[in-house]
Amino acid sequence: MGRQFRALRVADVVHQHLSSKINSNHRPVAPPWLKAVEKIPPAEVLTRTVPVALQPPNPRLRKPRRTYRPQNITYEEDELRQTFFKDHPWELARPRVVLETDGKDAQRYDWSKGLYQDGLALCGECVVQRQMWLMNSGMTKEQAYDVARREFYALRHREEVERRVAMEEARMMGGYFKGSLLVDNMRQEDRVFESWKSWAKRMTAKAEATRGQAYTSFGEETPFGSAPTESADSAPI
């Protein structure tokens, strides 16, 4: 193919190479990427561009192998998320729905009204966005975090009360609620442990009885005479 070629002419050069009849006994095979390159040709410039510097240069990173390393993408909410989930680690265990319709769901929420938003379940991201709005409204980071956290606790308490009331009403109407998978596993583990503990007690009592019987039968009469006893004469020297 040669050294001098354009990026847009890669497919043409390959076709010329495949149609050449230099060696009639050898049938060239088209590379698997040929059709993809014909549909989506590569860029005209083959040189690798240096990313735009969004941060001041770091002298320790001025090495050839780190020249093209992409910079870290950070957002203002990242620090707020880290603080909230560090204080509330169990919020990460709650299931969340991350499905979006058109990618503009965040534009439909008005965080000036509070944490509760139509179509959005209460989660840690609500606290972060509410805190962000309060900070943009003139509050400090700590004050906004306290206000958003107080609203979050109130809504969580309200959800827990509603859940308990709904469960009590359903039980009054004859509803039956089976325990969760974690509770069922713990109950099954308790049953297995109690069964093992009773078996261990029986085996321990049996072993102690066998050991005590061996000492109590020493020197008693046997069908073949008296049991042998050790004497001073037979003691090893």
In summary, what is this structure?
With 237 residues, the chain is an all-alpha fold. The protein has six helices and two strands; from the N terminus they run ααααααββ.
Describe this protein's structure.
The chain is mainly α and 237 residues long. Among the domains are: 9-39, no CATH class; 76-173, no CATH class. Helices cover 46% and strands 2% of the residues. The chain has a two-stranded antiparallel ribbon with strand order 1-2. Helix 3 packs across helix 4 and helix 4 runs antiparallel to helix 5 (141-172).
Question: How do the strands and helices of this protein lay out in sequence?
Answer:
Layout: H1 10-19, H2 34-39, H3 76-87, H4 124-136, H5 141-172, H6 181-216, E1 221-222, E2 225-226
Helix pairs in contact: 3-4, 4-5
Protein name: Small ribosomal subunit protein mS23
GO molecular function, one term: structural constituent of ribosome
Family: Belongs to the mitochondrion-specific ribosomal protein mS23 family.
Radius of gyration: 39 Å
**Pattern of helices and strands:** HHHHHHEE
- By DSSP, the count of extended strands is 2
Give me the number of helical elements: 6
Uncertain regions spanning at least 5 consecutive residues: none
* Overall pLDDT confidence: 81
Helical fraction: 40-55%
Give the overall silhouette: extended
